[in-house]
Amino acid sequence: MSNEIEKVHVLIIGSGPAGYTAAIYAARANLKPVLYQGIQPGGQLTITTEVENYPGYANGVQGPEMMVDFEKQAARMGADIRYGLATKTDFSKQPYKVWIDEEKEIEADAVIIATGASAKWLGIESEQRLNGFGVSACAVCDGFFFKGKEVAIVGAGDTAAEEALYLSKLCPVVHMIIRREQMRASKVMQERVLKTPNIKVYWNSETDEVLGEHKVEGVRLKNLVTGEKQEIPLHGFFVAIGHEPNSSIFKEWLDMDETGYIKTMPGTSKTNIEGVFAAGDVQDRTYRQAVTAAGSGCMAALDAERWLGAKEHG
Length: 314
What we know:
Layout: E1 5-13, H1 17-28, E2 33-36, E3 50-51, E4 61-62, H2 63-76, E5 80-82, E6 86-90, E7 96-100, E8 104-113, E9 117-119, H3 125-129, E10 135-136, H4 139-142, E11 151-154, H5 158-168, E12 174-177, H6 187-195, E13 199-202, E14 205-211, E15 218-223, E16 229-233, E17 236-239, E18 243-245, E19 276-278, H7 290-312
Parallel strand pairs: 1-2, 1-8, 2-5, 8-19, 10-17, 11-12, 11-17, 12-13
Antiparallel strand pairs: 3-4, 6-7, 7-8, 9-18, 14-15, 15-16
């Protein structure tokens, strides 16, 4: 453990659209923000190829390239952007303490948490190997590229149902793979799925393998009741088994819902601890889009600026 303690005015943890937007606003407000990029600089967008639904990029943009643009803009405004992972926090008293890479200790007057969420994966080798080559965890982001092609989607909850319905408008057949003999989705979503003629549901089934060498060419399913396997030729494979917010290091201090999303006061980025703000997918279980994350990053910086201003002028 090194004993150096660095004092910073505003600490931003995380570097997706929420973190970088917070940094842009905080830097412009002269709050001298220090941003730590975390384990995946640029966040989930760095594993997305084409982004076509972010306003301002008329011809679309590659996810990683867009995050480089965000980072450069934050740096140009004067944000201090660093590589490193927040590994421990102590929000018991002000200034708040955050440890980076288990050794460097930082004391911050205000903290903006923008650590995002990570898609859950099935954990099979072929899924990871073909990620970005027909395998995706976001139908709304990538479905468009499979227009007129057959696809599969794995999952049984509301998100999976929504994404299957979305894909059914673009694709001739959507193969929906469900582990049990029923769906977890709400009744109304289940009915919509089952009423959609081009969604074909496979009950009691799991993915044995995603087929294809350099791009998705099919999927091999295994029936969990009979043990029987079957192969289906297709071009896209979507995983919709949920997201996990990256919030574990804050568990001791912050109010969260049962799945670990940080609770914020409605209409704000404020958490249950004053001076600690949360933005982006770590607190948004509903929308989870780049544009909503960026908007909440702006809110967090403005909330932090007002809170610090009120504190200084007491």
